Amino acid sequence: MKKTFSLMLMLIIAATLVLSACGAKGNNNEGAGGNNGGAKEEEVKSDGSGKDFKIGMVTDVGGVHDKSFNQSAWEALEDLTAKTGASTKYLESKGDADMEPNLNKFVKDGYNLTWGIGFLFNDALSKVAKENPDANLAVIDSVVEAPNVASITFAENEGSFLVGVVAGLMTKTGKIGFVGGMEIPVIKKFEAGFKAGVAAVKPEIVVDVNYTGEFGKPDLGKIAAATMYDKGIDIIFHAAGATGNGVFNEATARKKAGDDIWVIGVDKDQSLEFGDEVTLTSMMKGVEAAVYKISKDLIDGKFAGGTIQELGLKDDGVGLPETNKNVPEDVLKQVEEFKQKIINGEIKVPVDPAAK
Prior knowledge:
This protein is of the alpha/beta class. The chain contains eleven helices and twelve strands. The strands form two sheets. It has a six-stranded parallel β-sheet, with helices on both faces. It has a six-stranded mixed β-sheet with strand order 7-6-8-9-10-12, sandwiched between helices. The chain is globular and about 55 Å long. The two termini are 28 Å apart.
């Protein structure tokens, strides 16, 4: 729990990915639809190593400001620009139909690397990779078996198990909820791990599950959360991208009204966005570190095409934030014990919530 998350993940990726090469140019952070990526607050002197490289990123339907994994990926590329001078740009997908055209735009414009962020890119990125064998592509949360694609996935079930332990030990009502976005394999992994973690410490609790069917609709997340809190649920874990922002909005309003409820965030340390008043903890994924490392490797002539890497607890690829202000030390101690049992193979965390 006390390791520096991003640094450790970079070291793991550096040590485990098998790499190959490529090239690209300057800096344009303009996004589709007039949404420009914000500049970094701190001033970082560029070493100029990426000044001839162009790297593009296509978001899924949650958008670049989802306060979740799309935003984490974009922040990695902003950091890359600041440190290397590489030109980086994003395009937002409003729906599945936008994904292939957005990927193709970067490829046709001569970008040296194009990222697809999310499981929903599987079909579009597979097609673009096949039709453009000389293009370098990378994907988060999906596996595309092609020599010009680097695939990065995470053991979300393992990290979700740990926040399930937190929820099980800290619920006061004995009622816990899970709000998912689309009912797809990667989100089912979150659900499966979370349920298993709760059951490990409170087997009598049945986790209430609601899939909104969307990643970019905060209003649906707010409605789902309101329904759960009205039932007496006091802790909700969301894995719903920007839809999950609505869960936080509902929780914040109720917290101000005096309700003793919490949200467990996802992908990023969401207490930094929504505050410690309402964020119990978060299930973090090392998306930012992974996107930065693969992109920097491209600049260094070591692109990871043709590799598939899953990062879990043993890699510090998933886990809780370094600081958890609302989680007592005795609970964190139990979380650490469960973490070690998972790493050691004593506990095998399910990936399917239907598994017994």
